[in-house]
């Protein structure tokens, strides 16, 4: 078993290694077989590695270019400029994986990437064990007795964002559940308001292969240049707790105001009540399932300030929006939405016609309100049109966050019910593009 542990090659992880990489670092290289395979496929690569086990490190040293025997948690790392840094089934064994990802981030080239294989604690086999009342550690696998950290796709996305990396699920090793077992879960998933088909994907995932690239907007030492009043309407306290309220910027001392509102009939009501109680001039209204990663507030403040300097009539701000130009829908923004990395950041800051409702920001004195008949849909478009009427622009800035929605990707019925009100109010601006489609005059 020990020999297999140090000798294995994860084919799914291997397929993601950049074929043009010139300098690679592998954390936890075992006997060096993975690196040897990479060097065979790419003879020009210089391969560095760190391995904790002395015997394994000695064997790896005969196959790789530079091997350090030691723990990644205590070892002084080699010089940077790596095209790729690889963690093959390693981070779940570390007590502070965030610290390690933050430690290796400066070692990447600007175009470099981190590759990670990580087991999925949401897998149906673990759910079955929990429901059966016997969460039993094993010698290997998802419940390897040496694992000290456990991840789902969502918690790992948060981890990478907090380390200043933009995550993307590059591959998934799937072991689907028994159909009969999944049928028994559907009632619970419906009760929890989870999308059935997305949930099937998540509990089928045995292991994820993540790729992380540098979030170039991330500045770990930056401090927010102005305080923010955050308004978050809430209908599920568990979702709030696991996302918005868990955002690192709210842990410990911070300059911001948090306004949580329940039993609000519409976004218009929540916004009006929130603005009324806002103590700060700048306000951010966002969904309860949005996670703001480490130092997000400082990044957002800087990007808003830059946008106001570059776009003199900037009125409202967001992290994702769209516009229609010559009949073509153009997306702007940089966010994680469910398990998807949406990266349309080359032209930011950018003026848009419609702002996605996951997060919008504005100065309190200029806020024009929104139509209560829209409910909780299309108010981002409505507010953008109101600013447009006042000669002000809706602007998307580059401040990545995570919209951890449990809903599917289909347009909800409530969205369609809101469309007639928007058409009536803003016929002069139709057709209008939104993040869910184009609203036509007829």
Cα distance spanning the termini: 67 Å
Structural class by SSE content: alpha/beta
Q: Any idea what the radius of gyration is?
A: 24 Å
Largest sheet: 7 strands, mixed
Q: In DSSP terms, counting alpha (H) and pi (I) runs of 4 or more, how many helices?
A: 14
Helix content: 25-40%
**Please, what is the CATH homologous superfamily of the largest domain?**
Vaccinia Virus protein VP39
Low-confidence stretches: none
Domain module tally: 2
**What's the overall geometry?**
globular
Strand content: 25-35%
Number of strands: 22
**CATH level 1 class label of the largest domain:** Alpha Beta
CATH architectural type of the largest domain: 3-Layer(aba) Sandwich
Task: Examine the coordinates and then state which fold CATH places here, giving the name of the CATH topology of the largest domain.
Answer: Rossmann fold
Q: Which strands sit side by side, in order, in the main sheet? A: 3-2-1-4-5-7-6
Mean pLDDT over all positions: 95
